[in-house]
Design brief:
The chain has 85 residues and is mainly alpha-helical. It contains 5 helices and 2 strands; from the N terminus they run H-E-H-H-E-H-H. The longest helix has 13 residues.
């Protein structure tokens, strides 16, 4: 997994801007055993400015619909804050 993670990181870092689908955020927030190491690397590189990223408004809707249906408005608000910073 370590070598695979480094390969993905190197592939992403060569781009100035990338598009992120909802699955990146879902795997990260759900701590997916298989994908969380990759999403962590990706989001850390984004945070330090290795590249910029875009996502669609649908990502926010898809991430917040579950918590809103469960009445977890605070969780939905936290997801919204994280994506709109």
């Amino acid at each position: 997994m370590e070598r695979y993670t480094k390969g993905i990181g190197a592939a992403v870092r060569i781009h100035a801007r990338i598009g992120l689908d909802v699955s990146i955020f879902m795997y990260h927030l759900e701590l997916s055993p298989r994908y969380a190491p990759l999403t962590l690397l990706l989001l850390e590189d984004l945070a330090i400015g290795s590249f910029t990223a875009v996502t669609s408004a649908l990502t926010l809707m898809e991430l917040t619909v579950g918590p809103l249906r469960q009445g977890k408005h605070d969780v939905a608000a936290e997801y919204e804050r994280a994506l709109t910073v």
